[in-house]
Automatic annotation (TrEMBL):
Similarity section: Belongs to the group II decarboxylase family. Sphingosine-1-phosphate lyase subfamily.
One term of GO molecular function: transaminase activity
Stored Pfam families: Pyridoxal_deC
Top-rank lineage group of the source organism: Bacteria
Cofactor requirements of the protein: pyridoxal 5'-phosphate
InterPro entries xref list: GrpII_AminoAcid_Decarb, PyrdxlP-dep_de-COase, PyrdxlP-dep_Trfase, PyrdxlP-dep_Trfase_major, PyrdxlP-dep_Trfase_small
Organism: Micromonospora humidisoli
Protein's name in the database: Aspartate aminotransferase family protein
Coiled coil residues, start to end: none
Keywords: Aminotransferase, Lyase, Pyridoxal phosphate, Transferase
Gene3D superfamilies, per database record: 6.10.140.2150, Aspartate Aminotransferase, domain 1, Type I PLP-dependent aspartate aminotransferase-like (Major domain)
Amino acid sequence: MIDKNGVPAERVLDEIRRLRVGDRPVHGGRLFAYVYDPGVGGLDELGAAAYAESAHVNGLDPTAFPSLLAMENWLVGAAGGLLGGGPGSAAPDVVGSVTSGGTESLILAVKAARDARPELTAPRIVVPASGHAAFAKAAHLLRVGLDTVPVDPVTLRPSVADMAAAIGPQTVLVACSAPSYAHGVVDPVAGIAQVAAAAGVRCHVDACFGGWTLPYLRRLGVPVPPFDFTVDGVTSISVDLHKYAYAPKGVSVLLHRDPTLRSPQYFAYADWPGYTMVNPVLASTRSGGPIAAAYATLRHLGDDGYLRLAATTRDAVGTLAAAVRGVDGLRLMAEPEATVVCFTSTDPALDLFVLVDELTARGWHTQPQLRYADLPVSVHLTVTASVAPRVAEFGPDLADAVAAARQAGPVELSADLVALAGSLTPEALTPDLIGGLAAGLGLGAGPPDRMAVVNTLLDAAPAALRERLLVEFVGLLQRPTW
Ligand SMILES: Cc1ncc(COP(=O)(O)O)c(C=O)c1O
């Protein structure tokens, strides 16, 4: 409840610091998901100061706050220039918008594609199965059909022929990733863009994750296939600045090859008694804070800074991948092409969920990925430059964690739980049942230290049941504090 007389500033800040103690460490190079840390001293302070300068500026009206418009236009220019657009390029008319994150950029790419084709009664999008879940969210929110195209279990990419075959008369957008989040592989963008263009359909490249690193990796000699506006048929690209541009959270850029393509992304409304509203993005009132922080980060790190950080990250990826290759019973899902290391187990006695817990116990926070179609359970590492100083410690810890996981053996669910997972339908899940299940799994006050049992249970459940379980579980966590 709100305090009657308020709380002194220092005490509030202290409260926040104490709350933060339970969080995963955002610095230190041992967290392989959620955060993107360049390990550059002073950058946090710069971002915070820039954020504070513009926190109360409102992106609702660019004419009232030209500072924000100027910074947004600069960010779009920086992203467009990096991704094959701008004066003198093959895509001189590139325009864009600054959004709050990758999910919003993808929702808006789908909205623009849908609203450009008002004559279609049941618009659909074609997305590789490896495409980010945000495409499914966009399809759901915008009531657009979702056609997913399977990926090859070896290359982890969709084939161009399968993508072409999935395009139908109601298709408004074909999407691909550069690279995919789960495995970090770049889809065959040129081929996909070509078949989309031949069908007269827009092609979006989701470069939210790696769009800021791929151009630098290419400059360092890594073989990066064409994926940006230099590819004919690519109509839009998303790139998240809060990922590998290392800006504080809340900033992504959605680029379109020209203003006509962007226009249906906007929403305007003049038919009410208040101010006439025009929103390029989903939010109406928007804080200038994240935009100013991103502007400061990009300006400060500069082109050379990003090149250096990409080189450091590439080296760290190489060391991590070598560590995985060095362990009997582990296999890389794909040779790293960008900044993801993803591996699976080839030994039934080596349970990856147990291994993830063992790594956590040794201070390495990795991300388990449940099995999907014919893809096995895997472990995902998003690698950032901050890992470099610690990377040599990973190999020995991995070997140690593997030995411990082998010794512990695979998780065996109790017969009751297996029967429950097999018999439950999503509709049958009541809040009471979930409460009982969460308590039984030790999830009462949030995730326990060891998640292997929970992950095994989720892995055993079909996707629809997983979704429902997670919705109910997070609903249990999100209860007001009085
Ligand atoms: C390829 C890709 N697209 C989209 C997203 C969604 O981004 P956000 O979490 O910023 O909404 C992500 C996030 O990891 C991603 O990796």
